[in-house]
Amino acid sequence: MIVGVVRCECILFSAHSLKEKRSVVQSILRKAVHGHNLSASEIAYQDAWQHTELAFACVGSARTAVEHELSRALSLVDFRTEIERVHTIYEWF
Description:
Pfam families: DUF503. This protein has two helices and four strands. The chain is an alpha+beta fold. The protein has a four-stranded antiparallel sheet with strand order 2-3-1-4, covered by helices on one side.
């Protein structure tokens, strides 16, 4: 069994309120977990308007399958124009 976790620190340049930030973050988190073997959460900077840290976790029998799911989740972040990923950390267990 392989457990993969990816944490990514992000900046939201266009967010002017927590409401705007949360709408972007919640949209990404919902799309990441919908129909996939993945857990997702905002793990830091919940009270900052333009800063967030997201975490995605996946459990699988093969590392390649877990990497694929985590990469798909990160592509959801990269696809959005209002959020920019600035720091990413992978962890394997």
